[in-house]
């Protein structure tokens, strides 16, 4: 009996001693059998386990997360939500296995404990990303609306939508970052406008779908009729919660009608008659649609189902310059003149100079009126006789319709300035242009509709512009009634000069290999000042300064592609 007791005691002592030795050995190590993030870490220290888990994670793709909202879903990488693996926290959780519960320790020894990978989440990043994704999955409600189809207004029914509870999904994921499916809980959102709210509006709109005849009667002349079909009438209505007139569409229609039928007045002007003598061409009065009044009345009338015809009010438009107001040609005196040359210009540039000069010839500016260059020469288009030539546009010298018109505006500007007229608008060129040398800073650029040349006629009577041109020179003369003013214009003063940049070479595949084509020419930059002194008959003196600032301009060459080098034998 005693022997049995001794054997039992020895066995128990050995068991206790063995257990104590095991506890001592694993005091700083993870218990055997523990698997963390798929890695066997039993017997390792926390540092060793951290390194092994991190190494294993380098070759593993981050987990995917499925976001669900009703019958919709979207799969994203967990890293998009700020998910980051935390090997250290994972190793520490593995180390904690069995430290407080014996059963857990036994399970670890049997290989039955597996610790999942612990991840760190950036709450702000998760929230922002979830908001973006949720907006894609949400379905906003669709209001009922009225549409025009096949000659009738129809009501399309409303559709309910839903919003997602982003906050609940965020809190769930932050508590359980190991989730592989995250569900948003939708909240229904009702539409604001229902079909029942629009049925009456659509019915009233359908009552207005009838042809309407617009009648334009010239004052004391022809009558023009235009029938608006049902589709055109529908385009003039806005049908929603309310029935209104499409004011922009109606205004556009009236403007088109006016452009088709208005007759603008023509001022009296001087023209060259037989024998080269100036004659007065009488004015022609015109008429125009009163668009403001038409718009005001039609806005009301269009909403009346009984409207079938509408008369558009046209009003007379008198010419600004009357023949009776013009002095006889022999009474006009030369106020000022200017001449510029353009020898060497391309045929297209010369044609544009001549076209603009022809349109400007005979232009009359009444006393107190405004000389308007763009108005005088008309639209610079191929239909008006202008051709493509070099112009300055977008910081480059490129081809454009009307290149060379600035020769005419510059010549006219010099005459206007020399006549002592107040200059309202004048724009220098971007860089010094050789056609206007040798007087630097005495030019005027025009570019419709943005840049113009304008001056006020402050002489006692009307002023007439005459032009004369050859293949290489242009002269602009101003005739009117002099008031005794004396005008002197100083030579230009160069205030500063900036050297031009080095040339630029641009490869152009449209050129042959090795071919070079110059498209811009180098000129230095200049700041200049010209002084004008006007002495009035009463002895008063006015001094005006004309400043120009020309940018330095580089030469630009287009070059063909490089010739490929021959391969070595």
How many helices in DSSP terms? 13
User: Which stretches of 5+ consecutive residues score pLDDT under 50?
Assistant: none
Give the amount of beta strand, in percent: 25-35%
- Strands, total number: 37
General form: elongated
Question: Percentage of helical residues?
Answer: 25-40%
Helix-strand category: alpha+beta
Mean pLDDT: 85
- Main sheet overview: 4 strands, antiparallel
- Rg, alpha carbons: 44 Å
Report on this model:
It is a single chain. With about 575 residues, the protein is an alpha+beta fold. The chain has 3 domains: about 20-65 and about 80-135, no CATH class; about 210-325, Ubiquitin-like (UB roll) (Roll), CATH 3.10.20; about 325-560, no CATH class. Helix content is about 25%, strand content about 30%. Helix 11 (about 345-360) packs across helix 13 (about 405-420). The longest helix is centred in the first third of the chain and has 24 residues, at about 1-25. It starts with a helix and ends in a 10-residue tail after the last strand.
Secondary-structure topology with pairs:
Blueprint: H1 2-25, E1 35-36, E2 39-40, H2 46-57, E3 64-69, E4 72-77, E5 83-85, H3 87-95, H4 102-109, E6 114-115, E7 119-121, H5 123-137, E8 145-149, E9 152-156, E10 161-164, H6 166-175, E11 181-183, E12 186-189, H7 195-207, E13 212-217, E14 223-228, H8 230-235, E15 237-239, E16 243-245, H9 247-261, E17 269-272, E18 278-281, E19 286-289, H10 291-301, E20 309-312, E21 314-317, E22 333-341, H11 347-360, E23 364-365, E24 370-372, H12 373-377, E25 388-393, E26 396-401, H13 405-418, E27 423-425, E28 454-456, E29 463-469, E30 473-480, E31 486-489, E32 493-498, E33 504-507, E34 516-520, E35 525-535, E36 541-550, E37 556-559
Helix pairs in contact: 2-3, 5-6, 9-10, 11-13
């Amino acid at each position: 009996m005693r022997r049995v007791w001794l054997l039992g005691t020895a066995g128990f002592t050995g068991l206790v001693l063995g257990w104590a030795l095991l506890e001592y050995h694993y005091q700083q190590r993870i218990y055997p059998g523990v698997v963390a993030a798929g890695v066997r870490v039993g017997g390792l220290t926390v540092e060793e386990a951290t390194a092994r888990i991190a190494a294993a994670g380098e070759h593993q793709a981050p987990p995917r997360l499925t976001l669900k909202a009703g019958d919709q879903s979207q799969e994203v990488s967990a890293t998009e939500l700020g998910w980051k693996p935390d090997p250290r926290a994972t190793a520490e959780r593995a180390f904690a296995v069995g430290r407080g519960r014996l059963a857990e320790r036994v399970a670890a020894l049997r290989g039955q404990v597996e610790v999942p990978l612990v991840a760190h989440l950036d709450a702000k990043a998760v929230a922002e990303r979830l908001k973006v994704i949720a907006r894609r999955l949400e379905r906003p409600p669709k209001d009922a609306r009225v549409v025009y189809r096949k000659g009738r207004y129809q009501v399309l029914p409303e559709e309910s939508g839903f919003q997602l509870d982003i906050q609940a999904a965020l809190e769930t994921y932050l508590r359980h970052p190991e989730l592989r499916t995250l569900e948003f809980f939708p909240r229904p959102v009702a539409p604001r406008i229902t079909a029942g709210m629009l049925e009456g509006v659509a019915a009233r709109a359908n009552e207005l779908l009838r042809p309407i005849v617009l009648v334009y009667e010239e004052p004391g002349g022809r009558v023009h009729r235009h029938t608006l079909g049902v589709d055109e009438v529908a385009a003039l209505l806005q049908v929603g919660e309310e029935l209104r007139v499409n004011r922009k569409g109606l205004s556009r229609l009236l403007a088109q009608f006016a452009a088709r039928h208005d007759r603008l007045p023509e001022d009296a002007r001087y023209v060259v008659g037989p024998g080269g003598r100036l004659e007065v061409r009488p004015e022609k009065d015109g008429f125009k649609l009163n668009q403001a009044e038409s718009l005001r009345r039609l806005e009301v009338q269009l909403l009346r189902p009984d409207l079938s015809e509408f008369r558009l009010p046209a009003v007379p438009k008198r010419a600004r310059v009357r023949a009776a107001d013009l002095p006889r040609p022999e009474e006009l005196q030369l106020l000022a003149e200017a001449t510029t040359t353009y020898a060497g210009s391309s045929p297209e540039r010369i044609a544009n100079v001549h076209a603009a000069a022809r349109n400007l010839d005979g232009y009359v500016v009444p006393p107190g009126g405004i000389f308007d260059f763009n108005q005088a020469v008309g639209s610079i288009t191929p239909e008006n006789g202008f051709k493509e030539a070099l112009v300055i546009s977008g910081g480059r010298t490129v081809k454009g319709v009307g290149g060379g018109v600035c020769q005419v505006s510059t010549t006219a500007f010099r005459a206007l300035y020399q006549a002592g007229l107040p200059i309202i608008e004048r724009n220098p060129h971007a860089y010094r242009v050789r056609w206007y040398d040798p007087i630097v800073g005495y030019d005027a650029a025009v570019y419709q509709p943005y840049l113009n040349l304008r001056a006020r006629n402050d002489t006692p009577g009307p002023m007439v512009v005459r032009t004369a041109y050859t293949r290489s020179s242009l002269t602009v003369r101003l005739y009117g009634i002099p008031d005794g003013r004396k005008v002197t214009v100083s030579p230009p003063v160069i205030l500063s000069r900036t050297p031009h940049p080095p040339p630029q070479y641009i490869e152009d595949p449209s050129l042959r290999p090795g071919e070079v084509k110059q498209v811009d020419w180098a000129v230095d930059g200049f700041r200049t000042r010209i002084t004008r002194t006007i002495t009035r008959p009463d002895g008063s003196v006015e001094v005006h300064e004309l400043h120009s600032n020309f940018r330095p301009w580089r030469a630009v060459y287009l070059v063909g592609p490089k010739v490929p080098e021959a391969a070595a034998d």
